[in-house]
Every structure is written in C-alpha cells, then in structure tokens.
Specification:
Length: about 325
C-alpha cells in the first residue's frame, strides 16, 4: 500500500548548546523508515530532565555525552504508527503506540522508533498522558523491581516524590505493600497523600535525616552534592538507587554496609511498557501531567522542567 507522506515536517531543533531559547521550530525532512523500524506520527512528546541536560551542555560537560548538531531532542513519544519497515511484524499502520525513540528526535511531527521500545498505548489514557509515561515510569519500575525487589513491609523513601519518576515510584512501591516516605516541598503534600505516601517530609522545613530512619530503600530522583544525608536514613545493609547524578560518600556507605547503585540509563522493552500499561488501565497507577505546551513553545516546557519544581510530567502537544 502506498502511503503519501509530506516531504517536510515541523520539529524543534537546537544548533548549539545553551538555554531554552536555543530551541527553534523549523521545517525539516520527514525521516525515511528503514527495515526493522517504525515511523510514528507523533501526537505528544514527553519532556524529561535528560532533554534539557543534553540541550544545556550539562550532559556533555559531566558525562561526555555528545549529540550531532543540529539535533531534535526528546525520547518519550505517543502517537500513531504511520509506516513500518521490512521485517516489522509487531505493529501495523494505524496502531496507537507509546514508548521511546532510540536516538532522540521525539519533538517532531514524525519520528523513527525501534519497535522493541514501543507498546500499544494504554486505552484508558490519551496521548498527552501516555507521552508522560515511558522514561519516568520505566525508571521507577526498574529501580523497584529489577535492580532490587521491593516486598510488602519494607520501607521505601522517595526523594523528589512529586516529580516524574518520583510519583510513579510512590505508586509502584505502595502497590507492592511497602511503607512509603515521600520527600518534596510542602505544596505537594496533598497530592502525595492522595498517591498513598505514609509519611510526608517537607524538605524546605525539615531535614529528612531528622525524621526518616531504618529505611530499606532510597530512590533519589534529585541527586546533587548533598546525598550523604540520604545514606544516614538507611538501615544497615540498605540500598540507595539514584536516577540521576548524585554524590554519596563511599566511606559512609561502606561503614554501614550500604549498597549505592550506579545511575543506569536503559530503554524499556515492549513487554515492560505493556506491563506498565496494564497497571495504568487497571487504575493501579495514575499519570500526573502538570503542564502541556504546544510544540512551538518547547522552550517553556524546558524552563518548567529545568526549574525542578514541576509536579508529575511536562508534555508537548505535537498534533493539534
């Protein structure tokens, strides 16, 4: 079947590292789908901290991550399959899918994805909500169930509990029967109690180490240079899993037999996305989207995400 695609599309690109103002709406060629690939007509794209860390040059300076410039940012995507390459049998044109692109490029009207990193979109949510799920929900899921195995009765502390990864981690841990401590600013208390946190700590008024003790697992979504205070809340033999760069004392960890995992960036598989989708469709996990911006105003979305104060997810509406 012949598919008539436009030759060009609207996309956000940046030609140099810098602030949100470097994000420009441009006309670029529609990518060609190759064997083993899927072309997705993007309805919405999720915004993640990694997007602005790459755009600002922070990822280059701290981790040596380089991207070819100019580049289209973004990994999280939700939309419709427009075309499939040779050998692709898992999806067909017209499927509503969500997931992650392999090499960025989600902030565009069309993008290429590896079908192994896509799944059918959860039917109970729209594309805006679905675009906020993949990276954040998978990061939380992987921390709780792959890098360790949280079980009922354990205590899990989520630092940055109201953010993208954090609000999923709270819900997934509660779903396993864990006691959950949520750390965030006071304005998020009601929201986090709705999600089920057993103890809320307002970090702006109360040092976390003064309240939390004997914690089995800390998921640190904030990172930074003050990570040692989180080590002090863990019980002997406890574990800390960072989802972003953080600084933690190796000697302090060793003295209490604590396990501090490295940051690991992975792409979710179809099966993992499908599992997360089931949790959403059964009502076990909800998706919080606090800001939706049109594609042309991606810079506003980055400003919000970079502030560190966004509740849940920030999403770009690509298809009006």
């Amino acid at each position: 079947m012949t598919i008539n695609l436009p030759k060009t599309m609207k996309a956000i690109r940046f030609h140099t590292y810098g602030g949100p103002e470097v994000l420009q709406l441009e006309d670029v060629p529609v990518p060609n789908v190759q064997a083993g690939e899927v072309l997705v007509r993007v309805h919405a794209a999720g915004v993640n901290p990694g997007d602005w860390q790459i755009r600002s040059g922070l990822a280059h300076r701290k981790f040596g991550i380089d991207v070819p410039l100019p580049t289209i940012p973004g990994y999280d995507v939700s939309g419709m399959v427009e075309a499939v390459g040779l050998s692709v049998t898992t999806f067909q044109r017209g499927d509503a899918v969500y997931g992650m692109t392999t090499h960025s490029a989600a902030y565009a009207q069309y993008t290429i994805a590896d079908p192994s990193h896509l799944a059918l979109k959860p039917v109970s949510i729209d594309h805006i909500q679905a675009a906020g799920v993949p990276m954040s929900a998978f990061t939380a899921w992987h921390a709780l169930f792959a890098r360790t195995r949280v079980v009922a009765g354990q205590t899990v502390l989520v630092n940055g509990a109201a953010g993208g990864v954090g609000h999923f981690a709270v819900q997934l841990a509660k779903g396993q029967g864990a006691r959950v401590i949520g750390v965030a600013s006071g304005r998020h208390e009601a929201f986090l109690r709705e999600l089920g946190v057993d103890l809320f700590i307002d970090y702006t008024t109360t040092p976390v180490e003064q309240v939390a003790h004997d914690v089995d697992l800390v998921i640190d979504t904030v990172g930074g240079e003050n990570g040692d205070r989180l080590l002090s809340v863990l019980k002997r033999g406890g574990m800390l899993i960072p989802t972003t760069w953080g600084q933690y004392s190796a000697s302090q960890a060793a003295s209490a037999s604590l396990i501090v995992e490295d940051v690991v960036l992975l792409l979710p598989t179809t099966a993992q996305l499908a599992e997360i989708g089931k949790l959403i469709d059964t009502g076990s996990v909800r998706v919080e989207v606090s800001m939706v911006q049109p594609l042309a105003e991606a810079y506003k979305a980055h400003e919000r995400s970079e502030s560190g104060h966004a509740r849940g997810k920030v999403v770009l509406r690509v298809m009006e």
